[in-house]
């Protein structure tokens, strides 16, 4: 049996999809890892890099967590025998005590569950969920101003170190 090359190892591990807008739109407080219940064609499309979690969110229904809005574009050759719904609701897999604590925070404290990253852990697909509260527009402007100030500060420090 042939050994896997370094390129194959890099493709089989690591990040699948990121939700970069989540940090801008929400105050992210607590993060946790959840498994995903997937069908075969979805796994093949994930391996092909066709996953998007940019507009997705998690909801608690009847004591279980479900992922809404995540898009896995089906591959034509992999989904010929099934009707592929690229935005179907997918079940999230967590321990009961984790789900119970999330239910309390979401229903009583007004938090939202936002997926921030999807990645491989071994041969399993994992989703990083964050408890989040929405930012107001003035909060978004303040964080943008802080980001620009940090960038300008780095430029000045680089220029100062180069001149010295």
TrEMBL record:
GO cellular component: cytosol
Domain of life where this protein originates: Bacteria
UniProt key word rRNA-binding: no
One GO MF term attached to the UniProt entry: RNA binding
Region of interest called Disordered, as start-end residue ranges on this chain: 136-164
InterPro entries with a match to the protein in the record: SmpB, SsrA-bd_prot, SsrA-bd_prot_CS
Keywords recorded for this protein, A-Z: Cytoplasm, RNA-binding
Main localization, broad class: cytoplasm
GO annotation, biological process: trans-translation; trans-translation-dependent protein tagging
CDD domains: SmpB (cd09294)
Subcellular location(s) of the protein: Cytoplasm
Composition-biased stretches (Basic and acidic residues): 136-155
Family, as annotated: Belongs to the SmpB family.
Function of the molecule: Required for rescue of stalled ribosomes mediated by trans-translation. Binds to transfer-messenger RNA (tmRNA), required for stable association of tmRNA with ribosomes. tmRNA and SmpB together mimic tRNA shape, replacing the anticodon stem-loop with SmpB. tmRNA is encoded by the ssrA gene; the 2 termini fold to resemble tRNA(Ala) and it encodes a 'tag peptide', a short internal open reading frame. During trans-translation Ala-aminoacylated tmRNA acts like a tRNA, entering the A-site of stalled ribosomes, displacing the stalled mRNA.
Cited NCBIfam families: PRK05422.1 (NF003843), smpB (TIGR00086)
Protein name: SsrA-binding protein
Organism: Pseudoxanthomonas winnipegensis
Protein encoded by which gene: smpB
């Amino acid at each position: 049996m042939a050994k896997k090359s370094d390129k194959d190892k890099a493709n089989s591990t690591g990040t699948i999809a990121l939700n970069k807008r989540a940090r801008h739109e929400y105050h992210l407080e607590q993060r946790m890892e959840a498994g995903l219940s997937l069908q075969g064609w979805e796994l093949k499309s994930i391996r092909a890099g066709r996953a998007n979690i940019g507009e997705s969110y998690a909801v608690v229904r009847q004591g279980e967590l479900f992922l809404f809005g995540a898009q896995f574009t089906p591959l034509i050759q992999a989904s010929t025998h099934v009707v592929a719904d690229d935005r179907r609701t997918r079940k999230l897999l967590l321990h009961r005590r984790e789900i119970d604590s999330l239910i309390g925070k979401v229903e009583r404290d007004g938090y939202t569950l936002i997926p921030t990253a999807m990645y491989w852990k071994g041969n399993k697909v994992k989703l990083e969920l964050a408890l989040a509260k929405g930012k107001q527009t003035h909060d978004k402007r303040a964080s943008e101003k802080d980001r620009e100030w940090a960038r300008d500060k780095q430029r000045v420090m680089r220029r100062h170190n180069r001149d010295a």
